[in-house]
Predict the structure.
Amino acid sequence: MGLMVDEIVDIVEQRLDIEVASDRPGVLGYAVVKGSATEVIDVGHFLPQAYADWLYRRDTRSTPLARKIMLVDDSAFFRDLLAPLIKAAGYQVMAVASAVQALAAIKSGARIDIVVTDIDMPDMDGFALATELRKDPATAAIPVIALSAMVSAEAIERGRQVGFHDFVAKFDRAGLIAALKEQTGDLHQAA
């Protein structure tokens, strides 16, 4: 699988903020990159076309004990982008818009097997959420996977200190599914 372009204008490493979502299949939306409106390709759209079994959809009705993933992200765009991906991989998903909502749902008795959280959120960030989960013996063992638009060595080290089990870039869909599979594998072994 490849991507053909007429010309490579520039290679830029920066935080990507999708400012306008797209309704076109294969396009995530548009972001401003170095002062220019730039169309952002949705590689995840094309993978199933190249590999028919990529993210093979399992029938979750036949597995009543499907692992329940809590997706925590203040961006509705990313919740809408990642929740279907996680569901397609065979997991149940509970998506919430803040760390405070996540903690409230867990304290109210929601069964959660893994928490996938953005680290950059207002009020309470993903680091603080992981810290709160580790403080409570009832939630201390829940694996926490961090999502970030930019993954730095400092953030990874801070994540280790608060107990993240993995750190995945927000647009790395395959990496997120691999991290979930790794954690659910650990859960199966522990059960």
